[in-house]
Amino acid sequence: MAKCVVCEKGVHFGIQVSHSHRRSNKQWKPNIRNVKALVGGNVQSIPVCSKCLRSGKVERA
């Protein structure tokens, strides 16, 4: 499953409502990227969301 290692952001579920008020299930997925980052002094490839990358919470290797 797509989940950020840093903030644990994952898939959100809800109901999408059209203009004619027809309702259908919808899921919103986070923007997850596999990034080589320093984790405990070692370089690992971890899934991280783009918000954590932009805010500088991840130190890339």
TrEMBL record:
Keywords: Ribonucleoprotein, Ribosomal protein. GO terms for biological process: translation. The keyword Translocase does not apply. GO terms for cellular component: ribonucleoprotein complex; ribosome. Gene3D superfamilies: Ribosomal protein L28/L24. Belongs to the bacterial ribosomal protein bL28 family. This is Large ribosomal subunit protein bL28. The lineage of its organism: Bacteria, Bacillati, Bacillota, Clostridia, Eubacteriales.
